[in-house]
Amino acid sequence: MNPPETLTRPQAQKETRVTVNDLSIEVATVNGTGSQSANNIFAKSLFRMGIPISAKNLFPSNIQGLPTWFTIRVNKNGYTARKKELDWLVGMNLATWEKDVANLRSGAVVMWNSNELPEAPVKARGDLIAYPIPMAELLKPVQADAKLKKMLINMVYVGACAQLLGIEEATVLQAIKDNFKSKQKAVDVNVQCFHAGMNYAKEKLEKRDPWRVERMDANGSKVLIEGNTIAALGALMGGATVVGWYPITPSSSLAEALIAFAKKYRVNADGTVRFVDVQCEDELASIGMVLGAGWAGARAMTTTAGPGISLMSEFIGFGYYAEIPAVIFDVQRVGPSTGLPTRTAQGDVRMAAWCSHGDTQHLVLHPGGPEECFDFARISFDLAEQFQTPVFVMLDLDLGMNFWMAEPPAYPTDAFKRGKVLTPEKLDQIKGAGKKWGRYLDADGDGVPWRALPGNPHPDAAYFTRGSGHDEYARYTEDPEAYRLNMDRLKKKTETARQSLPRPVLETVPGARIGIIAYGSTNNAMREARDQLIEHGIKTDYLRLRATPLPMAELEAFLKSHDRVYVVEQNRDGQMETLIRAEVRTPGLTEKLRGVRYYTGYPIDARSISDGIRNQERGA
Amino acid sequence: MSTTTTEKTNRQGFKWSDYQGLPSTLCKGCGHDNITRNIIQAYFELGVVPSNVVKTSGIGCSSKTPAYFVHRGYGVNAVHGRMPSITLGAKLANSKLEVIGVSGDGDSASIGMGQFCHAIRRNLDMVYVVENNGVYGLTKGQFSATAERGAKSKTGEENALSDIDLCALAITLGGTFVARGFSNDPKQMLALVKASVAHKGTSMLDVISPCVTFNNHEASTKSIHYVMEHDIHLNDLGFVASWEQPVTDIKPGEAIDIPLPDGSHIVVRAVGKAFDPHDKFAALQVLEESRRKGEILTGLIYIAEKEPDFNTATKVPTDRPLTTMNEADCRMPREAFEKTFASFR
Asked: What digits encode the pLDDT tens for the residues A42-54?
């Protein structure tokens, strides 16, 4: 390999303008090479400098040897969605090297491991700012075996980037310390490699790019956390005691985080537990176990992704009809089987809403960021028990597995809402009042019946639970009128529940005639997209949905007050738009709906939204 | 008006009628109803508190039967083949519950085979009854996976596939209580059901239970007549409850006394040559030998009474069920909460 000093032109002219705290970095690497800790240190250091960031891992369904891209978006305005245009590439993977370089926009930086990757693609471009670094050579003095060196090489580019971008050395050193905790040896060797990269950049590279980072104070008390982790904390604080799950990307880390927290906070002095988890044989069993526990009166949950929901759907329908509380975390990903199981999508919106055979309409929560992952995880247990039904909490791979900035939630002090559960005393009161309790009797006119829990010794308490064929007293029947009555009551219960779900969030600007509807992780790109649209003279109002069944009053008012309404979502078929069309009945409203649909497996970016709307507005 | 007849009560003060259920809607003479009767009798005699009884099932004729016993207990008729998972959740949620799952050969040996296998592996403290008739009754007579090769259906069709022996399977999967009974042999059945309830772990009770409507004809291998002709007792069982007089006159080699954690005993007397149901190799051997001879071996085939049940292994407390966990039980302290979030800074 050529030593870097001999790199010859052509390359981009030295940039004299300075761009502060606004760039998107991509590290193109190979999975299983240990780049994760280096990348986390990289991201965390920027975050701790008070600059808004996000960190996303675009990874393959593989353990070792396939391409992985780690992206960090740094943005002083707080735009933290994935950015389409890359400013700064760190090339570490020969297999994707040519394509990675070809994808860069003109004037972008390319830094690479010149001991392993050829210079030719960079030269061929001629319009990039080149920072070749002989990373393997720099590692020579480091005392470590080959395997460890493969991991440590990642700290070299962190050091070089820190030097070129102005990331505070002390902040990185602290992040290294925190990452490896008490393992002093690991800290030392990582620091050594970091310094190797830093010193090389300082001594051998001339800074030719415009990007700089500077400490600011935008992050306040925020933390950097994965949605799955914060959702697990929500579930813990929400009182989950029984977890049945089956490993599936991207949901496994939610269950695993919860189990880790429970091991710490749910063990009694005598070794007994206040939490149990079972890694089941499949999703058929995990939902069955959750329903069994919910039926018996425990707060129970499962974690899964779309394929798991497909398998669970029969039991979920049973839960709806038998009226059993359950919480289902669906961390959505791309489609069936192999292909893109480690890529993101809002692909289960329709399936969750109407999951299973027969008439069903489930309660589905769509957290729009990490804070809501916590809140919705927590309240989902209240909703499930209040309405005695399965409740979905919909994350996606982007929200669940990537790093998001989040305001730490307030310590919850509210009481669990455990719904209408009959004690023996309450049963005595009912009897004393000359009434008879019925498991499926609408005693309060809200469609929500009372339930007794197994073990309740009152002579009137016991009942038999079945799917669809039962009367108000849980007696088996195939009577047509009894069936119809029960179906109507279930509908009434859904209407009651609809009013208890998180309300949508409305953001308006004066004079906007265009509306946008979005939900879930798409929210992350929305502020930036709407700002881009303003630059093009398009003012928009934004209604963020947070649950289905839909908030009809707010939704219809929004449709009424806008000329055109764009439903932005990360799927092909406009799944939320389908739900809207199914429920909005007022004439003239659904005609206003347009769709902006993004389905590549990557997290949606702001430009795709604003372009999608602009293109359609041109033709409007 | 209250009745004046005094009904017999058990040790817990519960009446026989507390253990009864709705009238059966199965075919007259169905083996399953005999099993139901023995379940009622066993629970009554054991004095199990009816409101603590949880009865679960999947789908099929067998799965209807939980409605026919212990009406003061709580039942779930779940979906096809998924009885074990519903039961698992309920028992973990509340360790105090006495759970019995009733399944069939279609429910457990076909659609629910996965759940059957993993239930056996977990050793949840439950009674797992398979009412085994070799045929799908509710859908009118298709073969199930426990039908023997060469058996003929009512319409004369011959079964080409080998049968699944749930007892042998359960033993190889690590089952801790594996027994086979015959619905029309109430004496053996009552002892088996009682022992199943007393055993702390998954008691897998494979009960050959002839279908009088679809599988009781000449060339069937699970007709009443055929089973009566081929039923070979592996052992005779005595069940001695904790409050009953223990059997003291057992001579060495004559019987094996198996004490169970609740203080009861199973007294196993081998029929024919000596057999210790603790011996896994011997258990598999007698099953295979009887299969080759075309016999139906019944009795207690295998027991490992000292293996921990699932709730014990997972350290789920019995005195405070998970269903009762409140905010203080569930939420980490404020200081820990704040520290946790600080660690993500």
From this structure: 999 999 999 999 9
Q: Hey, what's the torsion of the CAs at B56, B59, B64, B69, to 10 degrees?
A: -10
B85·A288 Cβ contact <8 A: yes
Length of chain B: 345
Rounded to whole angstroms, the Cα distance separating B158 from A311 reads: 33
Q: With beta carbons less than 8 A apart as the criterion, state whether A231 and A253 touch.
A: no
Q: Are A597 and A571 in contact (CB under 8 A)?
A: yes
- How many residues are there in chain A? 620
- In angstroms, the separation between the Cα of residue A118 and the nearest Cα of chain B is 38
pLDDT at residue B7 tops 90: no
- Residues A197, A178: Cα–Cα separation, whole Å: 20
Place of tokens 């003061």: B72
CB neighbour class for A500 (10 Å; exposed up to 12, middle 13-18, buried from 19):
middle
Q: Is B337 on the interface with A (CB under 8 A)?
A: yes
* Interface contact flag, A295 B89, Cβ < 8 Å: yes
At B68, is the secondary structure helix, strand, or coil?
helix
pLDDT of residue A6: 44
Inter-chain CB proximity B52 and A455 less than 8 Å: yes
**Residue B92 CB-half CA count within 13 A:** 35
Q: Give the integer Cα–Cα distance in Å for B313 and B123.
A: 9
**Contact between B18 and A457 (Cβ < 8 Å):** no
Assign 3-class secondary structure to A109-131: EEEEECCCCCCHHHHHHCCCEEE
| Furthest C-alpha separation in chain B | 76
* 3 state DSSP class of A225: strand
Give the mean model confidence (pLDDT) for residues A497-505: 98
- Nearest Cα residue in chain A from B73: A462
The per-residue pLDDT for A481 is 96
CB pairs under 8 A between A and B: 217
What average pLDDT does the segment A528-548 reach? 98
**Min Cα separation B190/chain A (Å):** 25
Phi/psi of residue B191, nearest 5 degrees: -65, -40
> What gap in Å lies between CA A89 and CA A129, rounded to an integer?
10
Q: At what angle do helices A169-180 and A146-165 cross, to 10 degrees?
A: 150
Q: CA–CA separation, A152 vs A312, rounded Å?
A: 43
The residue with tokens 């669906």 is A330
Report chain B's mean pLDDT, rounded to a whole number.
95
pLDDT band, very low/low/confident/very high, at A11 (cuts 50, 70, 90): low
With CB atoms and an 8 Å threshold, state whether A281 touches B52. Answer: no
Is residue A593 within 8 Å of residue A581, measured between CB atoms? yes
Helix axes of A169-180 and A184-204: crossing angle, nearest 10 degrees: 150
Specify the DSSP class assigned to residue A369.
S
Distance CA A498, CA B185 (A): 55
**Cβ-nearest to A298 among B49, B71, B322:** B322
Of A579, A527, A584, the C-alpha closest to A554 is: A584
CA distance B180 to chain A (A): 26
Q: Does A377 touch chain B (CB under 8 A)?
A: no
**Per-residue pLDDT at A2:** 43
pLDDT, one tens digit per residue, over B119-149 is 999 999 999 999 999 999 999 999 999 999 9
B95: Cα separation from own chain's centroid? 18
Residues 6 or more apart in contact with residue A500 via CB below 8 angstroms: A383, A386, A387
Place of tokens 């700012």: A129
Question: Which residues neighbour B292 within 8 Å (Cβ) at sequence distance 6 or greater?
Answer: none
User: Residue A415: its chain B contacts at CB < 8 A?
Assistant: 327
Residue A470: which residues within 8 A CB-CB, separation 6 or more?
Answer: A439, A440, A476, A477, A482, A486
Separation of alpha carbons A472 and A482, rounded Å:
8
Q: What is the DSSP letter of A604?
A: P
